[in-house]
Each structure stands twice: as C-alpha cells, then as structure tokens.
TrEMBL record, chain A:
Cell membrane found in the keyword field: yes
Keywords: Cell membrane, Membrane, Transmembrane, Transmembrane helix
Bilayer topology: Multi-pass membrane protein
A GO term from the CC aspect: plasma membrane
Superkingdom per UniProt: Bacteria
Keyword Cell membrane included in the entry's annotation: yes
Natural source organism: Mobilisporobacter senegalensis
Residue ranges of the TM segments: 6-27, 34-55, 61-81, 93-112, 145-162, 192-214, 220-236, 243-262, 274-293
Name recorded for this polypeptide: Nucleoside ABC transporter membrane protein
InterPro entries from the UniProt entry: ABC_BtuC-like (IPR037294), ABC_transp_permease (IPR001851)
Pfam families, A to Z: BPD_transp_2
Automatic annotation (TrEMBL), chain B:
Keywords: ATP-binding, Cell membrane, Membrane, Nucleotide-binding, Repeat, Translocase, Transport
InterPro entries (UniProt xref): AAA+_ATPase, ABC_carbohydrate_import_ATPase, ABC_transporter-like_ATP-bd, ABC_transporter-like_CS, P-loop_NTPase
GO MF terms, alphabetically ordered: ATP binding; ATP hydrolysis activity
ABC transporter domain boundaries: 9-245, 262-507
Any Pfam family: ABC_tran
Keyword Metal-binding appears in the UniProt entry: no
Keyword Translocase carried by entry: yes
Main location: membrane
Subcellular location: Cell membrane
GO cellular component: plasma membrane
Protein name: Nucleoside ABC transporter ATP-binding protein
Source taxon at top rank: Bacteria
Organism: Mobilisporobacter senegalensis
UniProtKB/TrEMBL annotation, chain C:
Protein keywords: Cell membrane, Membrane, Transmembrane, Transmembrane helix
Source organism phylogeny: Bacteria, Bacillati, Bacillota, Clostridia, Lachnospirales
Membrane topology recorded in Swiss-Prot or TrEMBL: Multi-pass membrane protein
GO molecular function: transmembrane transporter activity
Keyword Zinc included in the entry's annotation: no
Protein name listed in UniProt: Nucleoside ABC transporter membrane protein
Species of the source: Mobilisporobacter senegalensis
GO terms for cellular component: plasma membrane
Amino acid sequence: MLDNLFLLIGITLMYSTPLIFGGLGGMVSERSGVVNIGIEGMMTVGAATGVSVAYFTGNPWFGFLCAGLAGGLIALLHAIASITFKADQTISGIAINLMGSGISLFMCRLLFDGATHTPAVERKIPKLFGDTRITGVAKNLNVDLTVIFALVLAVVLWFVFYKTKWGLRIRAVGEHPAAADTLGINVALTRYVCVVISGVLAGFGGASVTLAIISQFSPTAISGQGFIALAAVIFGKWTPHGVYGACLLFGFAQALTIILGGGNFAVPSQILSMLPYVLTIIILILFVGRSVAPKASGVAYEKGAR
Amino acid sequence: MDIKKDYAVQMRAITKKFGSFTALDQVDIDIKKGSIHAILGENGAGKSTLMNVLYGLYQAEEGEIYLEGEKVNIKNPNIAISHGIGMVHQHFMLVDNFTVTQNIILGNEVVSGAGVLNMTKAHEQIKDIVKKYGLEVDPDAKIEDISVGMQQRVEILKALYRGAEVLILDEPTAVLTPQEISELIKIMHNLAKDGKTIIIITHKLKEIKESADVCTIIRRGKYIDTVTVSEVSEEDLAEMMVGHAVKLVVDKTEADPKEVIFEIKDLVVQNERKLDAVKNLNLKIRKGEIVGIAGIDGNGQKELIEAITCLTKSKSGTIKINGKEIQNTTPRNVINHKVATIHEDRQKRGLVLNFTVAENMIIENYGKEPYSKKGFLNKKAMYENAKGLIKDYDIRPDNCEGLLVRGLSGGNQQKVIIAREVTNEPDLLIAVQPTRGLDVGAIEYVHKTLIRERDKGKAILLVSFELDEVMNVSDTVAVIYDGTIVETFKQGTVDENTIGLLMAGGAADGKNS
Amino acid sequence: MEKIVNLLKKQITSTIIAILCGFIVVAILLTLTGYSPFEAFGILFNGIFSKPKYISQVIIKATPIILTGISVAFAFKVGLFNIGAEGQYIMGTIAATVAGILFDFPPVLQIPVVVLSGVCAGGIYGAIVGFLKAKYGIHEVITSIMLNWIAFYLGNFVVNTQRFHQPDSTGTYIINESGFTMFLYGWKRSEEGKAFLMEHPVLLDVILKTDVNFGIVFAIIVAVAVAILLKKTTKGYELRSVGFNKDAAEFAGIDVKKNILHAMLIAGAVAGLAGALTITGMSPHKISTMGTFENYGFNGMSVALIAGSSPIGCIFAGLLFAGLLYGGGSLQSAIGAPSEIINIMIGTIVFFVALTKIVPVLADKLVKRGEKHAR
C-alpha cells in the first residue's frame, strides 16, 4: 500500500515537472499581455538542445542551461513578432511550434548522422538523494532534482509576482498597459523580458524531459506537453500557485492511470489514459467555469490609444 | 504678459493640428503658482487638447511652454511628471484588480532591498498625503470595488505621491455626485493652500464659481479671455464660452402626447455583482413624447437599459410595450416588439466595425425579406437600402455603403446607427447618451432627429448624463437616483437646481432624504 | 505609386511575400549548414512536378489538410480558434473505419454511410467544444486540447478491441471495399483496365500507382460551399457578425451561443470529413495504433493561416503545404539534407504571415508620407 502511494507520488511529480516549467513560462508571458501558444515548440527546442549539449560536453547541467538559452532565443522571435511588429500572437505562436520541432529535428539529424533521435546521455540530471543510495520503498520518492527546481521556481515566481516591484509592473502591463505607460513603465521592454523568460522556462521544461525522465531526444519526446501546460495556465487562472497545482493534478491523473493500469483492472489502458483529460474537462465544468485572462492579454499595445 | 518665475505654467502661441483640423490656434495661457485655474470651453473647444500638450501626450506644432519661468520641452508624460506635473484623466488610468496602494506606487515603488515591495512603508507614505489633504481612501481596497469618486482620489493621490506641484484635472466632476463634487472642491482648496497649482478643465459654470480663482475661456480652438472668477457672473462666463453665434437651445414645439405605450412597473435589476441596481422602478412613456432620464452615471441607468433590451435578467417587475410583457425574453423578442435602441457604446454594441456600412444597416433585419431570400443574402437590396439611408441621413463620405464602418468618423458612425434604428419604425426609440463624443453640429442633428421622430408619434426614451441635454430635448424629465425614479416633471416646470438636487439624492423640498 | 500601394494592400501579396521569405530563410539555413540551396530547391520541385505521379500524390496528400484547413479557417471567421481539428479529424477516421468494417452495403449506399459517419463524429466532437463554451464559458482552446487527447486514446482503444483489431498487426481490419472512394478502383484492377493502362504510361503512373480518389473533389466542393455559406447566406451573416463583434450581434438580437455551437459543429464536421475521406480514399483504409498525433489537424491550422482564413485560399495553401512536404521528402535521400528543413520552411512562412499583416499598414504610411511630400 505504502509502496503504491510512494509510487503514485513519485510518478505524479515526475510527470508534472516539465508541465510546471512550461506552464509557469506561459503564465509569465501571458501575465505581461502576450499570449504564448508556442510553448510546445520552445519546449521541443529545449529538449533537443539540452540533451545534445549534455551529450557532447558530458555535463547535464550545462545542457540544462543551454536548453533554457535556446528556448529563450526562439521566444525572442515571438517577442519581436508580437511586440515590435504587433503581429497576431496566435499565428506567431503556431509558427514557433512549427519552427521549433523543425529546427530540433534538423539539428538532430545534422549532429547525429541523419538520426531523428539522439544517443542516450551517460549522465542525467541527478536525483535528490543521489542515484544509488536509496533503495526499497522510499526509492520512488527519490525524485529528480528538476522536480525540486520546479517547486522552487513556482515559489520564486509567486514571490516575484506578488512581493516585488517587478511583479507589480508585469501585472500592470498585462492588465492596463496604458496606465503603466503613463507612469513611466516601459511596456514593450517589460513584455520582451517576460516573453524571453517564458521561453527560457519552457526550454528548461523540455530539458527536464530529455535530461531527467528519459535520457535522449526523439521526435516524440515532446508530444503535447506544451499544450497541456497552456491548458494549465488557463486552469490555474494565471497564478504561479494555480499553475503549479493544475500541473500537479495532470501529473497525478497520469500517475493514476499508470498505477491502475498496472493492476488487474478490467479497464483497458487506453480508456484509463483518457482520465486526465476527461477529469480536466469535468473539473472545469464543475468548479472553474469562466476564467479571467489578464485584460490586455493578446492585444498589442498602441501608444496613445486608450 | 512676460515670462515670470511665480507662474507655474505659461504657454505661448500653442498651435495643434489634427490633419487639416486646427484644434488649437495660437493659444496663450498663464497660470499662477498656488492658484486654482479653470479652463472653460464647450465640448470640442480644445481645452483638453491644450492640457494634453502640457502633459506631453500631444506635441504642438508651434508654441512654447514655460514652467516657473524656465522654457521646457515636454516630449512625453514622463518628462511632465519629472517637472512636477500630474494629470487626472477623464477616463481613469487605474488597474482594476490592483489595490489602491498598488495603483499609487506603481512605477515608483517603495522597496526594501532588491526590489522587494515594502507595503508597510508605502502605506505610511500614502497615509501622510491622505491626512495632509483630507483624501480619505481605503488603501487596501481593490479599485473595482470602490466608487468612482474614490477612484478619482486615487488618481489625485497618484499624482501627489509623485511630487506633483501642478495638478491637471480633466472634467473631474463629470462622473461625481454633488456630495462628491463638494468634497473634491474642498480637497482642491486644501491643495492650493499648500502651494499646489490646480488646473481644472470643465464646461460647468457653477463649479468654476465655487472653486476657481481664475478662468481662461477657449472657444473653437482660440483663446478668448482670462478673467478673475469673483469679478464675473455665471452669465458672463456662459456668454464667453458659447459666443453669441451659437445657441444650444433646441427648436421644438410643444409635445402632443397620446396614450401610454410603454410601461415599467416595480422593476428590480441586479448588477454584475448581484446587488440591486434598479430598485422598484416605475416609468411610463406615451406616444409622441420624449421622456428624458436625468441622473448621474451609476445610478442604475445601465442596468435599466440592459433589462429593457433583455441583455440582462430582471429580478422582478414588468416591462410592457403595447400591453405585452417583454422582460426576461431575448434581445430579438424586444426588437420584434418594435423597440429600437441607440446604445451608448456604439463601437461595442451598436456596430460591427469590420462590416460594411450596408451590412451594418441590416443587422436587425438580415433575416427578413427583401434582404434574405431563401436563406441567401440579397446584396442588391442591402446596398439599395444603404444608399437610401446614406442620402437621407447625410452620412459621409458619399457612397460609403461598401466601406467598412470602421473607417467612418464617430459622428457618421452614430448616424449609421440612428438611420438604422429609426427606419426600423419602432414604437419606442431608446437613445442612450446619443451625443457622446460628437461635435456640436452632429449633436444638433441627433437632437433634431429625436424630436422629428417624436412629432411622428413615436415614444422616445432618452438617457443622458448631461443634464442640459435632458432639459433641452425632453418633454418629461424623470430623475433617477439610486436605481429608482425619484420624481417626474413636465419640462419647463422646474429649474436645473431642483433636478440637480434630486439627482444627488436630495428631496425636492430641499431636505435630504 | 497608388498602384503599388493597392497591390501591397492585397492579402495575396502579403502571402506571396511570406512564402518568399520562407524560401529565403531556408536558403540561408541550407547554405550555413553546407548544402546548396539551389540543388535542394531543384530536388524539391522535381519531387513535386517531374512526374504526373508526383503531382497526383501531392493532390492526394493535400486533400485532408485542405479540409482541416477549411475547418480551422471557418472557425476563425466566427471568432473561434479550432485547435481541436486534430481530434475531430481522428474521430472522423475512427467513425469511418468502424462503419466501413461493420457495414457492407452496395457502394452507392456504403460510401455515404461511411463518409457521413465520419462527418457526424467530427461534427459532434466539435459541437462538444461549442457547447462547453456557450454553456459554461470554458475556453475552446483548453477543451479542444483535452478532446484531442481523448480522441487519440479512443482511436487506440478501437484498434485494440477484439471486434476491429486485425490479428498480428498494429491496426484494425481494412474497411470493406464497397466504401472505397478511389477513382476507377474496380476498373483499374480488372484485366481490361490493366491492359488499357499498360498502353498509356502516364495514366498508368497516375491511376494505378497512386490512390487517386474523389477526395479533392469533395474538398473543393466544401471550400466553395463554406465560402458561399459565409459570404452569401443569412446564416453566414450571423456567423460573421458573431465573429467580428459578438456584443453587437447579441444586441441586434442574434443568438450568439447558438451560433458558436453551430460554428463548431460545422468546423468539426468538415474536419471529420477529412478523416473519413482519408479512410475511404487512401491506403491503408484503416486506423492504426498512434504513437503520436499525425498532425492532420495541426497542419490544417498552418494551411488556414497561410490562406488568410479564406476557404478557397485553403485549397491553394493545402496544395502548397502538401507539395512542400511531399517534395521535401526526397531531400534526405538525394543530398542528405534533413527533410525537416521543410517544417522549418512552413513555420517560417506562417511566421511571416503573422508579420506581413503589417504590410498594408506600412503601405498606408507610405501613402501618407507621399502626401506630405506633395504639399
């Protein structure tokens, strides 16, 4: 029993971690007023970059950092399009998704002799209590360090958003850019920073799949996590704690399907796999209903228009 | 006048053009330090434009600005703020879901250490300012939860918190109740006593008499005069503001009302926050009369209109047109019962900006012959209809039926709505703030149209926050206060003061209820 | 001058500029990674145009994404973002497969039954999204994403049920031949047909070696029908008014919720049709266990965006998209350049489509500057 419980917790945390990075990234961007539907693409780029760098340098940490950098770089494209050129943010985000997976596989093929997946890295990101020492029941609680990072990140973002001047400014820019502008806050710069940060976080999220959960990149390494993260942003009502909770819930539902699937239940695994998604819709109907996005989200800011 | 150090603001020969339209033509103004200086002018006279130039929101084509004798170049609001100029816009610049304190400190936060907000200290600083000038606010309340008057104080606090020495208030009383107005005037005097310079932009004579020391009058973009308020009468000010040429009294004959066609009984409507906003409201309108609802914004007008048009549910009571109840049905049903509405928000509710003029003209009738034939749109009929209306209502530019309505001026957009609603041949025509944001010529046109429709025997409900408009156009004036009609008068039987008092919740006999 | 400006204001100009930018960016990328862009583009175009068979393949591949593109474009016009075309497409394939296996009517009945099953399944699936938005105000993007995954697993579930699973395979049984919509399917396999085709190598190439089918005809009909629906009918007027300004539509007495529901129903049905036609018109005429999304719906989003949400435009954008994908497939074997370069190209094109919305604005500014100079 305890075994199963620990397993459940372990798998929940494992599955939710990439979503948390992606979701928090999406939240930061949307809070500043830029819809970021390109999280999926940014995660893919991070996943590919992280594991490639780690493979060649032998250092997973360096790989993780580079994943963030790569995610940030591709996010910069989204920022240029949606802030400077006031392009349609949804279209730009979709383009980022297309380019993200294209670039990742393209680089992968170039670097690894035409293969669509990278070789496995020897050193993954270590687990919380080292790799070998913990055995037995508690083994399942020996989670990847990325799990801890995700938690720390959520706490830090919560602190930044609600306790610091930067958080106050970001929120103001996302809600009422004209008001922020009249008070001397640089709306465009704030949004640029937030979009790039969102890319960095999404990149970390991608790397937390390929450097912690599995140990290589393949075309299916990132398949839909970015979109689930996006849903978690809405579900979590654009707050760090809400997004964290929403991702945890997804992870939990995923873990549940695995645990239940392992037993001798009569339910086919495919039906069980639907559980997280069905559950989300039901929860939305029952409890959440209309969630209110930041007011200026998705709207390019025109100076002087009010 | 020379440029002097004891003048907070001196502007010289300011000219500002918007395209081919000259909004300001060589305007001068001198504002003494520590005074309350009113800028008086009609809607569209250029007074707000002048102050927007001072605040750096607009750049003048010509002219110079001096602050305390020093020439300055104000390219944007940040520069204005750094020179100690603060502005409270007519439409507040507040973040709705932030607290009062958060709004005040935004962009100029009190921090301890690396960017961490020190809210305790911020509270103290704000409290000091609050105490000094008597600006009572709850620092922890959210903007969306406080009254408009309170929000205005937050705007003033924002400016003072940034060390404003010159405070520009753009139409500060437009949205306030009389009590709030008198408190605002008190605050203005407190500020002036402390050496701050106050500039108020307004077209309300009474308030200028009550609050200002000096008044500069602007008419159609031109400087007219600057007077010491105590030395002139309201009548003098009015004459200078309007000039002799324009007389804003609407030409109309006595109404000849027939039977009651529209009746509201004991109507209760809740607002978005589930509080009763319309409380047991009763109203009757007869054929051939214009009933004007006078009241300050936020006394239930919005909810009343939404209930009549079935955009929102009525909690109880009945709304009858031609004897049939229409409450709690659908907007479509209301239209079918021959009620037409000119909504106050023409871009949100009145028009589909990305539709052509012709398409907008049939938005209520697209499903009927001749516009729809077996489920298909009849483009020819649609365009012919539009062509006719464009001609009849003089909508510019000519032959604009195929243009997107987005490209039309505000006045012409309003004409599109009016043309459409009037041709629906309604039994009841509702006009909510029908002249908001329009220039003088367009306003006159709208008023004439309303009266013409009245003379054709229609019932007309006019809702406006401009008391002058209600008084000039209506045959019957109904005063709304706190969600209910407190008193109804035949036009001409009462003066503005009595109605003003009722609008503020006072009783007609002069006692507060 | 005025002519240039007017030209710049046309949407097609923006789109062409975006496509050119896509080629330029990819050319730069290829050069940087040591490939000759000219050679690569040569192979690309050869892979599309050099043989009738190739052209035929492109058209076949384009059919489903033209339809999912129309589905997305249509929803866009009503102000909805149909990210759920993927799930609706999958539902279409599932329903068509199930119906195609369960029933075996004569073709004249079988084909409509199979195709309509897919259309209905997609339509209902879309309507769920519309219903949840209209009734509970839940954002269509979030429900669509969830429903995509539910459809994905439902497909895998159906594949693994005893009734439909073909033993020793990863897929279901093939649907009954009476449901096939290939062009001259029976004839081309008859002795007579084979003999005829042997004498006409071009036709042999096109008809026998590819799954030439009626799908593209359906796609064009749907594109025209949706365009007419939007532009010429009263219903289209309603839908467009809801899409542009739902507050004004509501105030004018138009039932916004009903229209959202209808719009999603139609969008879903079109995506479902795409799924059904894939099953009836293309081998392997069955569904298989999916490891990841097959992207027919997601590609539809790109098609719709490149087409500027015009249903007719979707035909051309779909052909372009399919052409690039199909032609690009041979890049890897021919010069060793990763064929994913095509995905980058499509992404870049979509990106520039987002950017080039600014071209008409710039054109306006150009005019204004011109006027100033004239003074």
